[in-house]
Amino acid sequence: MKVSRLLLDALETFPNFVIIDKNANVVYLNESYAVLLGIQRDAAIGKPVQSVIPGTRLHLVLKSQKKEVGELMTLFDHTVNDYITVVCNRMPIFRDGQLVGAAAVTTMQNITETISRLHSEIQDIKKENAQYKKELDILMKTQHSLDRIIGTSHQITEIKSTIEDFAFSNLSILITGETGVGKELFARAIHDLSPRKLNNYVKINCAAIPNELLESELFGYESGAFSGALKGGKIGKFELANNGTLLLDEIGEMPMTLQSKLLRVLQEQELEHVGGVKPIKINVRIICSTNQNLQKLIAEGKFRRDLYYRINTVELNIPPLRERIQDIPELCQYFLERYNMQEYKNVKGISREVLELFSQYNWPGNIRELEHVMERLFIISDNKTITLKNCDFLKKRMMIPESHTLKINSTDRCETLAHAVDDTEKERILSALEKTGGNKAKAARILDIDRTSLYYKMKKLGIYK
User: Fold this and answer.
1) Average pLDDT over residues 366-373
2) Does the keyword DNA-binding apply (predicted)?
C-alpha cells in the first residue's frame, strides 16, 4: 500500500478533518466532516473554506501563521439537526519554511454533551466520596465503642463481654437499670459493634410522646390519616431505622393497645402506616430500655407477657453507681478531660478527700448526677485541683454537718429531696397550665422547656389536663 493512500485512510479516522491551500481553498475534507456539514465533500473541494464551514477561523490562521489549540467552535450538526460545540485545533502548514496551507481537526465531538457527562460523573464521584467519608467516620467512631463505657468494675466488665458476644446477632436486647445509669450508651455500643453500624441508629422515648401520637411516630402515617397529618404522609421510626437499629427507650410506658401492634410488627417484620392498608417490609434490630420492673408491670396487667419475652432475648442490667463505687475515680477523670478540652482549661485533678466523699454518697441520680456535679466543680475550680472546699453544695445535698464524719447514709434524705423537687415542678406546671387555660404549648414556653419535656413531666408527676 502506498504511503499517500495510507495517510488518506488515516485522515478518515479523525472525527472532522479539513486541509486548505495557501489561498484558503479546501483541498481535503474527510467524510465525517462532510456528513456533519450536510454536504457532498467532492462539492467542497476548491471552494473557499469560509463558504464550506460557517464560522471557521482556518483562513485567519493563514494570515497569523500561528496555531490555535483547544479552541471552541459551534457548528450545526446535520446528523442530529442541532448545534453542537466542539474543541478544534488549527495548524499552519509549512514546507521548507514557506507557508503552503493549513489544517484543522476536532479533538472532542460535541463538548456540551461531554461536559454534561463529565459533570454527571464528577457528581457521582462526589456522592461516592461523601458516602465513603461517612462510612469512614462511622468506622472511626465505632472502632472503640466499648471504650466509651467507662469503668473496670466486674459488673461493667461482664456487661461489656456480653455485648461483644451478642452485638453481631439480630437478637432483641432489653437494657434495664435506674435513671441516669447510661442505658443509651450501652445501646449505642451494641449498634456500633453490629454489622448494622453503617446504617441508621434511631431512638425514641416512649414516655416523652403523648399516647395518641406514639403510634404514628413509630409506624408512620398516610396523608389525611388524622387531623393535622402532613400532606403526603410521613414515615415512622421503624422505617427510618430500616436495616439499622431502633432503641425503644422507656418501653414500660407504652400503652397496652400499642404493645399488641408492636408485638405483631416484631414477629412479622412488617408494618402498616396509620391510615394505610399496604404492608411494608422492614429489617430492624430492636433494643429496648426501661427503669421500671417489667415483671411487676406484667403482674399488674400493664405490660404484655408475650411482648416481654419477645424483647427480652438478652437482658443487660446496668448497676447503679452506688454498686460500682470503684469506677468513680475513672469516671471523674473522664469528665475532667472532656471539660478541659471543651473549655480550654487545665484543671489538674481531683483530691483524694473528694473521691472519699464521692464514695460515701448514695448517688440517686447515678452517673448523670456525677456528671453534673463534676461540671459544677470544674467551673468553680479555676484551673486548680478540685478539693473538699469546693464541695460545700454536695455536703448540703448529703445533709452532712461541716464537722461531721464523712461516713453517712443519705438514702432517705435524698429521696425526701427528690420528692421536694417533684412537688415544686408539679406546682409550677399546674400554675402554668392554669394561666394558659390548659394550652400545653403556651405552658411549655412559660416554663422555658420544650413541649416533649412538658408531656414527659406531666406523665411522670400524674398531671392529666
Assistant:
1) 94
2) yes
> Is residue 85 a contact partner of residue 112, using CB atoms and an 8 Å limit?
yes
- Contacts with 123 (C-beta within 8 Å, 6 or more apart), sequence order: none
Q: Is residue 323's pLDDT more than 90?
A: yes
CATH of domain 144-319: 3.40.50.300
Closest CA to 329 of 309, 312, 350, 308: 350
Q: 16 Cβ partners below 8 Å, 6+ apart?
A: 30, 32, 33, 36, 86, 104, 105, 106, 109
Q: What is the SS3 assignment for 426? A: helix
Q: How far, in Å, are 149, 350, 377 from residue 330 at the CA level?
A: 11, 11, 16
Q: What is the pTM of this model?
A: 0.61
* Domain boundaries of the chain, sorted by first residue: 3-109, 144-319, 322-409, 413-461
Q: Alpha helices, DSSP H only, in 322-403?
A: 328-343, 352-359, 366-381, 392-398
The pLDDT score that the predictor gives to residue 334 is 92
- Whether pLDDT at 135 is above 50: yes
Q: What was the pLDDT predicted at 407?
A: 42
Distance CA 395, CA 400 (A): 5
Set of cell numbers at residue 341: 478540652
Q: Which amino acid is at 356?
A: E
Residue pair 336/349 in contact (Cβ under 8 Å)? The answer is yes
> What integer pLDDT is reported at residue 289 of this predicted model?
97
Largest Cα separation within the chain, whole Å, is: 116
388-397 tens-digit pLDDT: 888 888 888 8
pLDDT of 132 strictly over 70: no
Three-state secondary structure call for residue 260: helix
Q: What is the pLDDT of residue 212?
A: 83
| CA–CA dist 287, 165 (Å, integer) | 15
> Does 186 score more than 80 pLDDT?
yes
Reported as type and span, the H/E element at residue 44 is: helix 41-44
User: CA–CA separation, 9 vs 246, rounded Å?
Assistant: 67
Alpha-carbon span 378 to 188, nearest angstrom: 27
What CATH code would you report for 322-409?
1.10.8.60
Report the C-alpha gap between 434 and 436 in whole angstroms: 5
Q: Does domain 3-109 have CATH number 3.30.450.20?
A: yes
413-461, CATH topology level: Arc Repressor Mutant, subunit A (1.10.10)
